[in-house]
Design a protein that fits this description.
By secondary structure, this protein is mainly beta. It has strands at about 15-20, 25-35, 40-55, 60-70, 75-85, 90-100, 105-115, 125-130. The protein has one domain (about 15-130): Immunoglobulins (Immunoglobulin-like), CATH 2.60.40. It is about 0% helix and about 65% strand. A hairpin with a 2-residue loop joins strand 1 and strand 2 (about 25-35).
């Protein structure tokens, strides 16, 4: 069940290292926005992608994002999407998906990858944050 955080504070978006697939450079990004469900503090963990077309032709790009708790967690898909990027243009951060978690003192991470039409998937671009940092 996805809940909408209340009393949300603006969340900063932090981006991880870049990867590429052909002429598309990709960065995975993450934010953790405060909220609550009743008396329980929560964080809405959101995955984003930044992409840049370094080529001379426009390209359609597909992308996916996954989430996990670093210690002992398994990867869960939080979203996917598709965008059109003109030659030499950069887009993002574009929201890919999110998950709301009850607050805990754990590190969480996302990873994204992308591919241009007809191309191979890029490597993974990770980004992480302490889930309930103040």
């Amino acid at each position: 069940m996805l809940t909408i955080p209340t009393n949300a504070q603006a969340a900063a978006v932090a981006c991880g290292g870049g990867v590429s697939t052909g002429r598309v450079a990709v960065n995975g990004c993450i934010s953790a926005q405060r909220g609550s469900v009743g008396e329980f503090p929560t964080r809405e963990i959101t995955a984003y992608i930044k992409a840049r077309n370094t080529g001379t032709k426009a390209v359609n790009v597909s992308y996916e994002a996954f989430f996990r708790v670093v210690q002992g967690g398994h990867w869960e898909k939080v979203g996917s999407g598709r965008t059109h990027i003109r030659a030499g243009e950069a887009v993002g951060p574009l929201e890919v998906g999110s998950t709301t978690r009850v607050c805990g003192p754990v590190k969480v991470e996302i990873r994204v990858h992308a591919r241009a039409d007809g191309g191979a998937w890029s490597g993974w671009s990770p980004a992480s944050t302490k889930q309930c940092q103040t």
